[in-house]
Each structure stands twice: as C-alpha cells, then as structure tokens.
Design brief:
Blueprint lengths: L2 H4 L2 E5 L7 H9 L3 E5 L1 H4 L9 E5 L9 H15 L8 E5 L3 H17 L7 E5 L1 H7 L4 H11 L1 H25 L8 H17 L12 H17 L22 H16 E2 L12 E5 L15 E8 L3 H5 L6 E10 L11 E10 L2 E16 L1 H4 L5 E7 L1 H15 L9
Parallel strand pairs: 1-2, 1-3, 3-4, 4-5
Antiparallel strand pairs: 6-12, 7-8, 7-12, 8-9, 9-11, 10-11
Helix pairs in contact: 4-5, 8-10, 9-10
Length: 413
Amino acid sequence: MMIEQFIDNVLIIDDKPDEVQELINVLNKYDIYSSSYTPEEIKGQTIKNKQIIFCDLFLSKTDTTVPGNISELRNILKIICSKDFGSYGIVLWTNHKAHISDVKSKISTDKKNNSYITPLFIIGLDKQKYIQDGYDKLFNDLNTEIEKDKAAHFFVNWSITIKSATNKALSDIYSLVPDYDKQQTELLYILYRMAINHTGIPENKINEYDLSIDAYKAFDELLYSDLINQQDKNETNLFKPIPQNPYKSCVDKKNEVFSKLNSKMFIDTVNIQQEHIIPGNVYEILEADIVKPQVPNNVTVEKYIAIELTPPCDFSNEKKINSRLIKGFLCNIGHKDKFKKDFYYKDMYPLTICSKDNLQLIFDFRHLETVDDSELKDETKYKVLFRVSPKLFADILQKFSSSYARLGLSKIE
C-alpha cells in the first residue's frame, strides 16, 4: 500500500501558515492538490471532499487547554464536514498519544449523534520533527502509522483498488467503441442491453419503464468484477491475530450492526416502482380481506408481506400469465425458533426494513397464490417495499422449488 496513491486532495488547517509551507511543497511534488487555511479563515469557506485533513491540535487563540482545542477542532469539522463531504481521515499534528485518544473519544460522541461526517480514522504525527528535519519521510511515516491501524489500512487500500477498478471498467467498455462519433449510438445501445440484462424486463415493456438506474446497477456489477481482481495476494493479513468478538455481552448491538449489513447486501430499494412488477419484488399486504399466513403463538408480526416469485426466464420471455406470490411476514428474530418446519423460508435475518432493525424475513411456502397484475399494482391492496437481491431471490426460489418437489412416501406400517 502506498498512501500517495490514495491521496489526491488535501486540506491543511493550521494557525501558523508558515510552518506548513514545506508540507505544501512536498504535496505539490507528488502532484497532490492542497488548500491551506487558518482556523478563522476556514469557518467562512465551502470545502469540498478531501481524502486527508492535516490539522494542528492547538487551533484556538484563546484556549490553551487540550479539551478546549479539541472542542475548537470539532466545531470546525461541524462547519465544513456536511453530509455531502464524503469519507476522509485526519492526520493530527501531535507527538502525544494521549491527545489522540482524547480526540477520538470526543469525536466518537459526534459520530453517535450524526452531527456531521466524522473521520474514518485519526492518526498522529509530530509536526516539530518535520519542521526540523524536513518532510522527505512524511509518506513513509504515514504508511507506517496507517498500517498500525488495520481498519484505516483497509479503508485506504480498498479506496486505491476502487479507483483502479473504476478506471479499468470504464476503459474496457469505452474501448469497445473507439470511434467517438459512434458512442452516442453504439455505446448507448451496449448500456441499454446491459440494463435489460440486469433487470430482465421484456423489451416490449421498456417504454413503460425507465432503465437508466438499471444501467448504473449493471455497470456496478462490472466494477465488482474488476474490483475483486484488483486485490493483492501479498496484502497484509488484516485478521492476524484473529479478531475477538466484541459483541459477546451486547447482542442487541450486534443485531443492529448485522441488520444494516444484511440489508445493504440483500435488500434493494432503488428504482422500485409500484406499477412495474418484477420478480423479487416484496409487497406489504394492506387489504384486510386478503388471506394471510397463520402465525405461530407469541410471534408479533411487523408486516404481512408477499414476494413475486415468477422465475426470471419466464418473466423475460413473457411466459408469465399472472403474478405468482408466496406470502409471509416480517417479525423480530427473537422468535426464530418458532419456524422449524420445512414449509418456512426462514434463513434471512437480521434485517433492517423501513428503519426497523432486528427483523426476520419469513415466507410460508404453503401460501402460494396467483393474482392478476392489476391487483399488485393496486396500492390499497399491496404496497411495494423493496426487491430482494438476485442472490437472495435465487435462494428463496430454490428452496421453494425443493419444498414443492418433495414426493414423500406413504407406506403401510
């Protein structure tokens, strides 16, 4: 990992501009853009995202205490690091490790309150060392400090591979149409075909559906393909020694974290439209008269739901006549021991759905029903919530098919 590959834009906050001029010169040498402000100047600026913020710990003109200066730093971050600022790390000019711990502790409070975009990592370097000896070893020292912090190391290294994979994905696709004059026709058609392939929607229904978002999703899949091939096999082993479980005494925290992770991996809420019925769409059942699955005793249902389970090939080739639904419900994972029967799909938990954590997705394979598309489009009967990912959809479809394919054997005993 080379930190200079990661950084292309730096912000410097220092009350003594003359002390950071040599830092600016070194950054320029590596073709890294930098902007430098005093604490007073920066409060009136609109600052765009920077990968690294170099910052003196002592920024206040009136307060000489460490707590007072940490408060000044936090106030500056609240002003400049709005919700659109992006991810960044802080390099704090201090040679006192205790000060770094104090800064981390206070900014951790801000992170919990979501008052601004907080740094992904905070490391410290001794500014006086560079003022005396020069900045020639700055990047080596940065690499060393970041490698000590494995979470920071992962973020920096992953960001480098993202840049590389993005460039490769773009280059590979655009190289398919080397003639600039044909990009508006040939390249656009390639993206169109990729979008159709991603969604599986029949071509004769395209005029009713905006494929633009699906083109981006299809390109994301290309990026992923290139990204996984960027990883260096000689990369530092992040998990040596093996991390210990920090959630042993805090199951609720673990479930909250894992709920959000699972939802990012398996739940899609982008470009999900009521009027377009696509396999994998999950609907909340709203109409009281619609028959719903029976719920085991003492299980509290958050929402009754149904998933559209038409095989994607039937959908794409227009072999579908009506929508095929499997009904189920969302409930708290505290009841997961209630679903041991083979006719339940119960493997996806914990999830965050509609801002509620700790949910389990349950489908009852006995509740198979075909409905006319007009019913699913009726928002008084069904409300589309999200679409499951292709991986989760395939798992549900496979287990549903296995359940319905069971022959059994009635024997005389």
